Amino acid sequence: MRCHSTSTFPTHPFLVVLIVIVAHLGIVHAQGGSRTFSTRPLRGVFRVAGPPQPALAVLQGNAVLPCDIRPPGPNDSAILVIWYKNDVTPIYSYDMRGKHSEQSSHWKDKEYLNERAYFSTVTEPAALNIDHVEERDEGEYRCRVDFTKSPTRNSRIHLTVVVPPHKPNIIDERGKTVPTVAGPYEEDGDMRLTCLVSGGRPEPTVLWWRGETLLESKDGPGEFPALRRNILVVSKLSRSDLHAVFTCQATNNNISQPLSASVAIEMHLRPLTVSILSSEHAPLSADRKYEIACMTAGSRPPAKLFWYLDGKRLDNFTVEVSQDGNTTTSTLTLKPTLLDHDKVLTCRAENSRVRDGVEEDTWKLNVWFVPILHLELGSNMNPDDIEEGDDVYFECKVLANPWPYKVVWRHNGNVIQNKAKDGVIVQQYDLALRNVSRSQAGNYTCIASNTEGDGYSNSVELKIMYKPICVSDQKRIYGVARHEDARIICQVEAYPPPDSFRWAFNNTEEMVDVPQARYKSSTRHTQSVLTYRPVTEMDYGTVLCWASNTAGQQKNACVFHIIPAGKPESPYNCTLTNQTTDSLSVACTAGFDGGQPQHFLLEVFDQHTGLLQANVTSRENAAASFTVRGLEPGKVLNMVLYAVNAKGRSDPTLLEGFTLKIAEKQTGSPVPFEITPLLGVLIGVVTALLLVTTTILGALKMRSDRKAGRPDDLPLKKVSAPTAEDLYDADDRNPDVVPTNKAVKW
Ligand SMILES: *[C@@H]1O[C@H](CO)[C@@H](O)[C@H](O)[C@H]1NC(C)=O
Ligand SMILES: *[C@@H]1O[C@H](CO)[C@@H](O)[C@H](O)[C@H]1NC(C)=O
Ligand SMILES: *[C@@H]1O[C@H](CO)[C@@H](O)[C@H](O)[C@H]1NC(C)=O
Ligand SMILES: *[C@@H]1O[C@H](CO)[C@@H](O)[C@H](O)[C@H]1NC(C)=O
Ligand SMILES: *[C@@H]1O[C@H](CO)[C@@H](O)[C@H](O)[C@H]1NC(C)=O
Ligand SMILES: *[C@@H]1O[C@H](CO)[C@@H](O)[C@H](O)[C@H]1NC(C)=O
Ligand SMILES: *[C@@H]1O[C@H](CO)[C@@H](O)[C@H](O)[C@H]1NC(C)=O
Ligand SMILES: *[C@@H]1O[C@H](CO)[C@@H](O)[C@H](O)[C@H]1NC(C)=O
Ligand SMILES: *[C@@H]1O[C@H](CO)[C@@H](O)[C@H](O)[C@H]1NC(C)=O
Ligand SMILES: *[C@@H]1O[C@H](CO)[C@@H](O)[C@H](O)[C@H]1NC(C)=O
Q1: Which atom of ligand 5 is closest in space to residue 435's alpha carbon?
Q2: What pTM was estimated for this model as a whole?
C-alpha cells in the first residue's frame, strides 16, 4: 500500500514548489484563524497546547509517532497532514484532497526519511511509523492537520532514541575474559566475577542472574565514559554451585531484548567418602590371596587411590574411574601373612588440586593362621641330665589366631592321655611327667588345632638316663668243650651307653673277676664279648657281667651258664600240620641245643618197604618244621627227626604219617539215599563187627611190630624235652617230660 502511495506522489519539482506554497498559505490561513479565534497573544507561527508528547524508539528499531486526524466537529474531515522535524523542516505530508479519486498522496523528505517512514491512517490514532531508527531521528516532531472546516490542529511529539549497550563482557578474578566456563573454584572458596558493559544511552542497568534469581551485586568504578562495571561476589561456594550458570544482563530500555553474557562454574571438589568394601571386615586366612575393593566418591577431578599397610605403600592394585568421574574404585590384591595380623590397611583417596583433599578409610586386619608351636622342656631342666624317677615338664608355646580349641600331645606318635594316677598330667599347653621311667623316653610333640588347621610343634627328644640292664632275650647257656673257646656275648640296655663292663666267674667255690684282657667291650653296640676257655672241670659254672654308665652300675648282673658241650636234645611236641596226596608238613618244638648251635634233620621211610623217601634239613634254630614234597599218594610213612649240633646228633623222635589217597581226595558230593529201618539195623551190625575185627587185628599187628624192631615200625609217640633251665633245676622237672635218652629205644 505504501509502495502504491509512494508511486503516486508528485515527483515533479514544480509540483513540490506548488505544494510548499499551498502549505504556506495554509499556515497564513491558520495564523489568520488563530488571530480570529484565539485569545492568546501571538507568539510564534503556530499554537500548540502543553509540552510535547514523549515517544521512545530503540536504535535500529521502530518509532511510532501518533497524530490525531479526527475532525473536531461533524461534517468535517482532515484534508492534509504535514510532519515537521524541529518545527521548521517539513519531512512528510499526507494529502487527502484527492480522496475521491481514491488516491491519497504521501510525500516524504527523501534525504531525511527516505523510505523509512510511512504515515498510517488505519491505526487509531493515526501514526507516523519510522523504521530503522537512527540516532539523528531523535528530536521534536510536529504534526499539523488541516480540516475542511475546522481550524488546523498542531500536536508535538518528542522522540527519544535509545541506544542499547554492547554485549556484556565477564571478567574473572585475574582480569581475564571468561568465555563460557569460570573457575575452577574450590569448595568454600569465593568467586568474584566482574561484568563490563560499554555503550548505551541512557546509561544501562547491569544485573546478575542465577537462573531466574536476581542476585545482589555492586557497581564498580567506571573507567571511561560509558563503561560500566558490576561486580558479583559469591562467597563460600558449595558443591551445589558446580555447573551453576551465572548471567550478566545489561539493559537500558524495556523495548528491546536485554543483552547478556553467561558463564558456568567449574569447581574442584574434595573426595566426599572413601570406604574399604569388605564384608564386615571379616578375618583373613594367612597366605591366601584376597581382592579388596575401595571406593571413593565426590572428588572432582577424580580422586587417586593409594593403599598402605602399616604406613608401607602397596603396589598391587588396579584403579577404575566411573564414567561420570564421580567415583573411583580400586581393587587391591593382598596375600596376608601371619605377620600382617593387627596391621592397619589404609585406603587413601587423594585430590591434589584442593586443599586437604585427602580422605582415608582404615581396616585393622585380623589374619587367621594355623597355630605355630614351639615345644621345649621346662626352663629349669637340663635335657642331658634326666634320670629315671625325675619329674619332667614340657611347655608348648603357641602363636595362633584364632586361639586353638584343642591341644594334643604325642609321644613317639601316640596320643598321650591324661593319667594323673600314673603321673602323666596333660594340661592344655603343659605336660608334666612325674617319676619318669625309661619307657617314657622318646620324641614328644604337641599339636594345636584351630579353624585354619593343625599346627605341629618341633619334636623334642626326651632322654632318660638309666643304669644298664640286661637285654632279656639273649643266649644264656653256652655249651663248651674243654680247651675250646666260647664267645660269650653280654648285651645290655642303657642310656647313656655303658662306658665300661665287668666280668666275673662264679663256680661253686669262688667268685673271681675276669681280667680285662679276656674280653672286648663295644659301648657303641652296648655289649661286651668274653672269650672263655674252660680248661678244667672247675671252669664250668656261671659267668656274670655288669655294665656301668654315668647313671651308675648295673644292679642285676647278666648271668651266663657255661656247661660242658653235648649233643642236643631231641625235638618234641611234634604235630602233622598238613597232609596231601604228595606232601606232609611236620612241626616240632626244638629241645635244648646242648650249648651249641643246632639244626634239624628229617628222614622219611615207607612203612612197607622201609625205603628212604626223603631226607630234609631245617636250618631254623628255634623250631624244627619241615615240609616234604614229591611223596607217593596213599603211603603210610615213618618219620625220624633229629637235632644236630657240633657235638653230634640227638636221639631220634619218631612220627607216623600217611599221604592221602587220590580217591580219598576226590570224594565229591555224597549220593543221597534213604535209610530204611531195616537197612539201618544191617549197617549197625556190620559196623560193629568191623570195629571188633579191626581192633583185634590192630593189637596183634602192633605186638608183632615191636618184636621186629624195624625203624619203620617205631611206635608213634609224643616226645617232650626239658627246657634249658630244667637242666639246672632238676627237682623242678616237668612231670610230663620223659628223659630224652630213655624216650625211644632202638
Ligand atoms: C451536513 O451536510 C449535509 C449536506 O452536505 C447536510 O444535509 C446536513 O444537514 C449537515 N449536517 C449538519 C449537522 O450540519
Ligand atoms: C516501559 O517503561 C515505561 C516507563 O518506564 C512504561 O510506562 C511502559 O509501560 C513500559 N512498557 C512496557 C511494554 O513495559
Ligand atoms: C557423587 O557421589 C556421591 C556419593 O555417592 C553423591 O552423593 C553425589 O551426588 C555424586 N555426585 C554426582 C555429580 O554424581
Ligand atoms: C600382584 O598380583 C598378581 C596377581 O595376583 C601377581 O601375579 C603378582 O605377582 C603380584 N605382584 C606383586 C608385586 O605382588
Ligand atoms: C616311681 O616309679 C617306680 C616304678 O616305675 C615306682 O616303683 C616308684 O615307687 C615310683 N616312685 C614314686 C615316688 O612314685
Ligand atoms: C626321635 O627323633 C630323632 C630325630 O628325629 C630320631 O633319630 C629318633 O629315632 C626318634 N626316636 C624315636 C623313639 O622315634
Ligand atoms: C656263686 O655261686 C654260688 C653257688 O652256686 C651262689 O651261692 C652264689 O650266690 C653265687 N654268687 C654270685 C655272686 O652269683
Ligand atoms: C606243643 O605244640 C603246640 C602247637 O604246636 C603248642 O601250642 C604247645 O605250646 C606246645 N607245647 C610245648 C610244651 O611246647
Ligand atoms: C597243605 O599243603 C598243600 C600243598 O603243599 C597246600 O596247598 C595247602 O594249602 C596246605 N594246607 C594248609 C592248611 O597249610
Ligand atoms: C640224611 O642226610 C644226612 C646228612 O644230610 C646224613 O647224615 C644221613 O645219614 C642221611 N640219612 C639217611 C638215612 O641216608
Answers
A1: 1
A2: 0.57
